[in-house]
Amino acid sequence: MPTPSRYWREIPQRYRFEANQCKKCGTKFFPPRLICSECNSQELEQAKLAEKGKILTYTIIRVPPHQFVDQAPYAVGIAEMEDGVKLTGQIVDCGFEDIKVGMPVKLEFRKIFQEGESGILCYGYKFVPANGNS
Amino acid sequence: MEGIIGYGAYIPRNRIKVEEIAKVWGADAPSYKRGLMLEEKSVPSPDQDTITMSVEASKNALKRAKINPAEIGAVYIGSESHPYAVKPSGTVLAEALGSTPEAHTADFEFACKAGTEGMFVALSLVKAGEVKYGLAVGADTSQGAPGDALEYSAAAGAAAFIFGQENIVANAVATYAYMTDTPDFWRREYQYYPQHGGRFTGDPAYFKHIIGAGQGIMEKAGMKPADFKYVIFHQPNGKFPFRVGKMLGFQKEQIEPGWLVNKLGNTYSGSSPLGLTATLDISQPGDMILIVSYGSGAGSDAFVFEVTERIDEVRDLAPKTRDLLERNIKYLEYGEYAKFRHKIRKAD
Amino acid sequence: MRDVAVIGTGMTKWGELWEKSLRTIFVETALLAMKDAGVDRIDSMYVGSMSSGLFTGQEHIASLLADYLGQTPVPATRVETACASGGLAFRLGLMEVASGMSDIVLVGGIEKMTDVNGYEATYALGTAADQEYEGYHGITFPGLYALIARAHMEKYGTTREQLAMVAVKNHRNGAKNPLAQFPFEVTIEDVLNSVMVADPLRILDCSPITDGAAAAIICPAEMAKEMGKPVVKIIGSGHATDRIALSSRQDVTWLEATYQAGKKAYEMAGKGPDEIDVLEVHDCFTIAEICVMEALGIVEKGQGGRAVEEGLTSLEGKIPVNASGGLKSKGHPVGATGVAQIVEICKQLRGEVGDRQVKNARIGMTQNMGGSGGSTVVHIFERE
Predict the structure, then answer these.
(1) In chain C, beta strands by DSSP E
(2) Do domains C4-117+210-226 and C138-207+235-383 have the same CATH topology?
(3) 3+ Cβ–Cβ pairs closer than 8 Å linking B and C
(4) Which of C44, C139, C224, C240 is the most buried (most CB within 10 A)?
(5) Chain C interface disruption, residue of A38, A58, A62, most C CBs within 10 A
(6) What is the pLDDT of residue A116?
(7) What pLDDT does C119 receive?
(8) SS3 state at B40
(9) What subunits make at least 3 CB pairs under 8 angstroms with C?
(10) What residues pair up with B161 in beta bridges, in sequence order?
(11) What is the spatial distance between Cα A120 and Cα C85, in angstroms, rounded to a whole number?
(12) Distance, in angstroms, between B10 CA and closest chain A CA?
């Protein structure tokens, strides 16, 4: 479980989807990197992650790590966003049987977990189905 | 002139029916449904809370306001279910929107009127020229004690309003606040569930303050019930808004568009604010809207809004309240509901 | 660089060893290897262990184990690269002997996993993933491989039954291995009816939680000949890394690190996939064995499932894989696995495994993988 400082450091990514992009070859990174893994350039500029995408693969976690015990079973997947960036996240607000490879999703702000009864609350993004309305 | 330049709503997808709750406690469902004029209520998923709903409602408001979030100078969340006892909810919202660090933030509480409280202050700061834009959210994931009457109605939802002085969607014509010390509903520190005074919550509490604020604002603004196209009252159950409306001289038709409680439940600090977003969704330029909230303890905030031409440009830019109320619904059984609402005692 | 050979191996029964501590398990195993090699002093030792800290609260185990083995003040190094810790420990030992810096080196791997409860073990194993962008969202080790499995099934038509066949094969082999944690057979129905862990992977698709160690003694090949030992030479070694987060990879069904490490090992050995007689691969989950077969070039991309179904990799097949029972049946004490694979291959090449013996095995290969494929170590051995 992250300590307060480890959690806080990732806020720009978890709350605002701040990414960066290689000035030379255009590859986008989320989370941001110091060096482009495609062309090795160290010149990167700020960018924002696209908030809509499609599910590439998914699973249902039924045996969770201890801080997720209350949430199991839950769906987790990898989605490819409209700008080509891929990320891992929980898939919520739909039945497990509704999840399919290729399903359109968008990012929504949710509570990821809490550190017991007295620790900090950890927020971030999850995938929700992106049907027509919105 | 100042007023609402953007508004947005968020309602979680889960619902539980009155029958399902009544079944567990051996209560007579039909009489609860009749008595409360209520069929079902929204339930937050375990990963949703006042903060998460405020973020999504505010993003919807930003879609309509079309401003740079960095220019929001005040960020307020009013709730009686702030996730932390000590650590602001508003700071998380401000970070998520990108409004930090130059924004004034405060968490408000005053039972069910914490939302309009934030609205009152945000609007006033804009009017005073102190901030360019002010954001106020009313959001709650309210808890009703198991088996208590309030368990049938305590629901979850959020409504966000951005105030400014340009591109106004609804001008703020008048504001008014009416408040006394009346212990009709309360929760002591470290208590898990609130308590209330039974029938004492009616005439000396809800009705007295809404009537006081409603008459007060109409007198201040020189208006009467017939001048309004729509009116929204706090909705603790389905019956009270119609009763107080009648007492004040309003018609059923004025109340109905903003009356969500029969399918939504009482979203506490989100109650009248969501009634307002639902009303704005169907309003037309020129409509006069009155909103009177109520928070136990007790007090009411009242606002008169006049809808402008701009409503036609922004209405469709974000999800409508009734669409959120009707989309992707999942009905829960009592067991899953109790698990979601942390009503089950687990091992340490 | 001199040629290096394995002259001794050691392994004790794996399982839930309640009575034995991390130190005891390692020392017993290492002593067996030293006895098998006929040595009582070593010049240096390497120990692979993924997370003695999270599982038992103990770090600094290299010195601790050197001490308890009675080899103080010998240089001792603890190596960590998730589940490939053992294989990497072996590679580093190999380099120390090959370079001439040491003559007799002990390489071991150890993991004591049962002193924590199931949820804590799941968490500890999950630390092999990207903590901020995978683990943060609740992914687990089985979950990562389940993501790979579903993608592989969608892309290549690999079936649920083919995954189960990997477990069935490995248990059939493991039933003949007296040191295995689960020395019994399972059927396809058993696998398909077992409890779901992370869809589509069930408990019988997953390697277990195990306490255990494995050890080997290596020395220059010349010295082995002089000692009159059967010479099992290390002819190839490869090590490669991959993007740690599954979502960062081009194709989640392709194990690039395994391909790269395999390529380096094949090149060094001057051998190709069709010259390998026997293989021990990292079947942490049934899907892993299928993907590894493809990445090592044993079968074509996407054909791993079909290969298992057709019996290519069974004990009697053209290229037997995991004659030891694999991680599935033998067990998976994380840091020890890589070394145990090497122990099995060396014993296969020396003809010492009884009714698990692959006939005329002269060239053997081990593939040891960390996390969801973020690191892989491959070795090739030849019996002279």
Answers:
(1) 4-11, 44-48, 76-79, 105-111, 196-198, 201-202, 212-220, 232-241, 278-280, 363-370, 375-383
(2) yes
(3) no
(4) C139
(5) A62
(6) 81
(7) 87
(8) strand
(9) A
(10) B7, B136
(11) 34
(12) 11
For chain C, give the mean pLDDT: 97
β partners of residue C233: C5, C382
Q: Which of B82, B196, B209, B234 is catalytic?
A: B234
- The answer to whether B306 touches B173, Cβ cutoff 8 Å, is yes
Cα separation of the two ends of chain B: 55
Q: Please indicate whether residue B80 is annotated as part of the active site.
A: yes
- Secondary structure (DSSP) of C55-90: HHS---HHHHHHHHTT-TTS-EEEE-BTBTHHHHHH
Tokens of A134: 């919105």
Please tell me which of the candidates A56, A86, A89 has its beta carbon nearest to residue C137.
A89
CB contact under 8 A, A59 and C134: no
Q: Chain A within 8 Å of C58 (Cβ-Cβ)?
A: no
* C-alpha torsion A36→A41→A46→A47, nearest 10: -50
Contact (Cβ atoms closer than 8 angstroms) between residue C359 and residue C243: no
Tally of residues, chain C: 384
Please write the tens of the pLDDT for every residue from B89-142. 999 999 999 999 999 999 999 999 999 999 999 999 999 999 999 999 999 998
Catalytic entry in B80, B117, B151, B306 = B80
CATH code of domain C4-117+210-226: 3.40.47.10
Q: For A38-49, what is each residue's pLDDT tens digit?
A: 999 999 999 999
How far apart (Å, rounded) are the C-alpha atoms in residues C116 and C118?
7
Q: One-letter amino acid identity for B22?
A: A
Instruction: Measure the CA–CA gap between B279 and B289, rounded to whole angstroms.
Output: 8
- Residue B345: the pLDDT is 86
Residues of chain C whose pLDDT is less than 70? Answer: none
**DSSP reduced 3-state for C3:** coil
> Contact C59/C52 with Cβ under 8 angstroms?
yes
Print burial letters for C296-334: b (CB count within 10 Å at least 16), e (below 16).
bbbbeebbbbbbbeeebbbbeeebbbbbbbbbbbbbbbb
Q: Residue range B247-251: average pLDDT?
A: 97
In chain C, % helix, strand, coil (3-state, to 5) comes to 40, 20, 40
For chain A, the domains span: 4-129
B205: which residues sit within 8 A by CB, 6+ positions away? B182, B184, B185, B197, B294, B296, B298
Amino acid at C270: G
- Give me the active site residues of C, please: 83, 332
**Alpha carbons C211 and C15: distance in angstroms, whole number:** 5
- Does domain C138-207+235-383 fall under CATH 3.90.226.10? My reply is no
Which chains, if any, share at least 3 CB pairs under 8 A with chain B? Answer: A
- At B57, list the tokens: 């409602």
Type of residue at C159? T
pLDDT digits (tens, 9 = 90+) for A69-101: 889 999 999 999 999 999 999 999 999 999 999
**Residue B83 pLDDT more than 60?**
yes
Query: What pTM was computed for the model?
Result: 0.92
For residue B294, what are its two tokens? Answer: 């109520």
Residue B346 has pLDDT above 90, yes or no: no
Is the CB of B47 less than 8 angstroms away from the CB of A109? no
Task: Say if the Cβ atoms of B98 and A109 lie within 8 Å.
Answer: no
B42 phi and psi, to 5 degrees? -85, 150
Average pLDDT over residues A9-25: 96
Average pLDDT, chain A: 93
Q: If you average pLDDT over every residue of chain B, what do you get? A: 96
Q: Work out the average pLDDT over B180-201.
A: 91
CA distance linking residue C346 with residue C330, whole number of Å: 16
- Residue A133 confidence (pLDDT): 46
Do you find a cis peptide bond into B88, omega within 30 degrees of 0?
Answer: no
